[in-house]
From TrEMBL:
<dbReference type="GO" id="GO:0007040">
    <property type="term" value="P:lysosome organization"/>
</dbReference>
<dbReference type="Pfam" id="PF17189">
    <property type="entry name" value="Glyco_hydro_30C"/>
</dbReference>
<dbReference type="GO" id="GO:0010605">
    <property type="term" value="P:negative regulation of macromolecule metabolic process"/>
</dbReference>
<dbReference type="InterPro" id="IPR001139">
    <property type="entry name" value="Glyco_hydro_30"/>
</dbReference>
<feature type="signal peptide">
    <location>
        <begin position="1"/>
        <end position="21"/>
    </location>
</feature>
<dbReference type="GO" id="GO:0032006">
    <property type="term" value="P:regulation of TOR signaling"/>
</dbReference>
<dbReference type="GO" id="GO:0042176">
    <property type="term" value="P:regulation of protein catabolic process"/>
</dbReference>
<dbReference type="GO" id="GO:0036268">
    <property type="term" value="P:swimming"/>
</dbReference>
<dbReference type="GO" id="GO:0004336">
    <property type="term" value="F:galactosylceramidase activity"/>
</dbReference>
<dbReference type="GO" id="GO:0006680">
    <property type="term" value="P:glucosylceramide catabolic process"/>
</dbReference>
<feature type="domain" description="Glycosyl hydrolase family 30 TIM-barrel">
    <location>
        <begin position="101"/>
        <end position="450"/>
    </location>
</feature>
<dbReference type="InterPro" id="IPR033452">
    <property type="entry name" value="GH30_C"/>
</dbReference>
<dbReference type="GO" id="GO:0042391">
    <property type="term" value="P:regulation of membrane potential"/>
</dbReference>
<keyword id="KW-0378">Hydrolase</keyword>
<dbReference type="GO" id="GO:0030163">
    <property type="term" value="P:protein catabolic process"/>
</dbReference>
<feature type="domain" description="Glycosyl hydrolase family 30 beta sandwich">
    <location>
        <begin position="453"/>
        <end position="515"/>
    </location>
</feature>
<dbReference type="GO" id="GO:0046527">
    <property type="term" value="F:glucosyltransferase activity"/>
</dbReference>
Amino acid sequence: MALSLPSAVALVFLTAQVTHSAESNKCVGRNFGHDSVVCECNSTYCDSVGSVTLPPLGQYSSYLSSMAGSRLEPGRGQVQVNSTGAGLRLTVVPYQKYQKIRGFGGAMTDAAAINILSLSAGAQDQLLRQYFSSEGIGYSVVRVPMASCDFSTRLYTYADTPGDYNLDNFTLAPEDVNMKIPLLQRAQALSPRPLSLLASAWSAPAWMKTNDALIGKGSLKGQPGGKEHKTWAQYYIRFLEEYAKYNLTFWALTTGNEPSAGQMTNYSFQALGFTPEEQRDWVALDLGPALHASSYPHTHILILDDNRLLLPHWAKVVLNDIHAGRYIHGVAVHWYMDSLVPAEMSLGVTHHLYPDYYLFGTEACAGWNPLDRGVKLGSWDRAEQYAHDIMEDLNHYVVGWTDWNLALDQTGGPNWVKNFVDSPVIVDTKRDVFYKQPTFYSMAHFSKFLWEGSQRVGVSASRKTDLEYSAFIRPDGSVVLIILNRSSSVILFEVWDPAVGYITSTAPAHSLLTLAWNTH
């Protein structure tokens, strides 16, 4: 629960307690005047749920986060043989099997790297551990922008020499070599499993583009199959080759961040416009063959990398083409404007039309909306927005969900166009501390418990309810049920797993609850 002691006193008190009990590794709560608290961490202390092992058959574990101040608060209970007759029953239906999980994570932007490196060595280590270590929340995906984006301090690409069609002058930026790469190597060293790195480019070099600029409305010169399109495909290969020199290999790359943005007049930051037809032909004629012929033929290609409201149309145009489709593995979606189109009409229809291609969430952040902009320290409402969207995506066949910047400063930057947003971790360099936002714990309820290979299964409710829920069977056979209560009432319910029995539980008002149990 949140501590009302002044944080400095609380910190001293907690640090003294740590020697006595691992269980006292609790959130040092600070209230900044929003509807909940942040958890403050420094170079020597950070709350952590630790490595999670489930109790033996017949018992279950629970983890609760809430507006009231709980943060992954652990609990245990007995599985009952008989129903208690609770009004609401959630029945796990293990034979209804859906998609398998790939993973969860965030983006190592220039801004994220700058903020992480602004902390002392000890605090940097704490922050990376929180995300990537087995005591942390189990991030396994890291999105890496190829060259600059709005969350950079300057405009650049890796091939800014005009007319360099052979990419003779291709070179990684200081931001890569001095900041992003060392941090990715440290994250990988902390992670118990290989990280799934995902590359996305924002813009081609200006000289390859119709508007001769990195920003605004512009696309590649010429046609797919032409020299600009071929060079742009080779640029991707060169990026993979340069990162491989640092032992960093990529699971996937996207066809480019938000291609619809580069079709907008007066767009204020880096973009490269593609229509779905142009993207289809570029993959079929240029990117697909180039990747196939390179040293990285197993790197996945994800199309779209834009808002899901462009589905299913975008997928139909690209995936109906046999020449493009054979190089593509999945469809990448962003969360902005998700409320404008039902998930079933976009994600659901796309999955049913193209079940062989997976759906993957590649970007989301709070604080992007002009009406609710920037950092809000302690906003539980934003935690609920995250949990709702992740749950809705998972319930519509998405196999993973990637947050945007891993860390930002208190203004929500740096960002060269002042496009300030929020992040699950906010860094306060002056005090050498970082704050874990409620959204950090939203991510944790999924990333910590849904290991790669976990499979979504059916759940049915005995009556209409305000609860949102999703169930999974993990590779070891254990079951994870995640429950979101966005209402202002406490909701009592029971879970029935035919394999083990009944679990009686409570979802407090404005809470997120993860239940987990063994089945053998």
